[in-house]
Amino acid sequence: MLPTILRRLARALLWFVAGSVLLVLIFRWVPPPGTALMVERKIESWIDGEPIDLQRSWRSWDEISDELKVAVIAGEDQKFAEHWGFDFGAIQAAFAHNERGGSIRGASTLSQQVSKNLFLWSGRSWVRKGLEAWFTALIEVFWPKQRILEVYLNSAEWDTGVFGAEAGAKHHFGVSAARLSRQQASLLAAVLPSPLNWSASRPSTYVARRAGWIRNQMRQLGGSGYLVQMDSARKSPWAQ
Predict the structure, then answer these.
(1) What's the CA gap between 90 and 81, in Å, rounded?
(2) Mean pLDDT of the region 139-143
(3) C-alpha span between 54 and 221 (Å, rounded)
(4) Same-domain check for residues 138 and 190
(5) Is-contact 35 118, C-beta < 8 A?
(6) Same domain as 133, residue 16
């Protein structure tokens, strides 16, 4: 009985590994039709009795403002070009902060956020964190940094039911993602830690101050020049 169970578990594990690798490879070139977070938001709206219409229009790399690309990196993950999916220094700092009590601080990289939003459910269980690490490793191996950021920008949530740079730009500023100014981009990046509670178009004092800090960080990173060097900073033999 036990050997049979183990064989079935091993077979299921192999199918999961093969399926997840295939899915990541497909999304290396094919735009994901949606994300797990979008499905989650839709289900939540049905449960609450307030159905929402999800807004999302995929835009390619060249159709998204460089200002937004750099703003998101400056605000969310300044070591994006260097790491392989995990910023262990930030993880240690967040762990130490959380041990002292107070507000919970996260340390997710952009790669981890793509993994979570695209493939997984919300929550803090060890199972979900383990799956997040697995998918993060896969996309770091098989995708170039440009693709990771492109998928992130097309998957990020900027208000209830508003997903992706194009929908976010139109929702908050009435412009396309390609025409975002530096100030608008910094405001969109500033609300990403809590997009359902903060507004880019009606920023609080804190959000406006954070957006100003992001603009300073963008200049220090080198602006759009940072993007030119991004994929050459660390290369995977698979992500060419």
Answers:
(1) 15
(2) 95
(3) 34
(4) yes
(5) yes
(6) no
